[in-house]
Amino acid sequence: MSRMRQLAVVVSSLALATGGLIVTTTGTAHAADCSQSYLPLQDPTCQPGALNSDVTQSTIDSTICVPGYSSSIRPSTSYTNALKVKQIAEYGYDDTATADYEEDHLIPLSLGGNPTSEQNLWPEPRYDAGGYTSSDKDTIEYKLYKAVCAGTIQLAPAQQAIATDWTTALQAVGLS
Q1: Average pLDDT for consecutive 10-residue bins of the chain (176 residues)?
Q2: Is residue 169 a contact partner of residue 81, using CB atoms and an 8 Å limit?
Q3: pTM
């Protein structure tokens, strides 16, 4: 391919990307599937959350509250990295550097989230998005996890609160 043709392809791809379109490897264009308008939250139509059926209120003492549990079921980075690339395109993010996103479990593994479901994993920006960063969500997840394992709150309300709006999850379950 000539240098001029390569440049034309790159410029056309950039124009489509900035217009909210994604060019696939087959060369066809389609609109971004997931909306960034919810940031710092995920698009709930794309990632509503998914639960791990092995984790219930009656099993927390043998699952999530056991040290090392989350690590034991965490999917491989090869799986999450490939999914991250796919979902960055689905969200139509201008920044496509994978290092700028955490492929995050909406309902964390420590609260009984499904480890591999695409409905529970999304490319959460590491940078400030709507006044929050991915590390802010991590802090909230940990507080909910500690409260569930301490018996301060029940598992299902914690799962529901974080899946609905992690920025208000602590208040939703009566924690601050």
Answers
A1: 37 35 36 88 97 98 98 97 97 96 97 98 92 93 98 98 97 94
A2: no
A3: 0.81
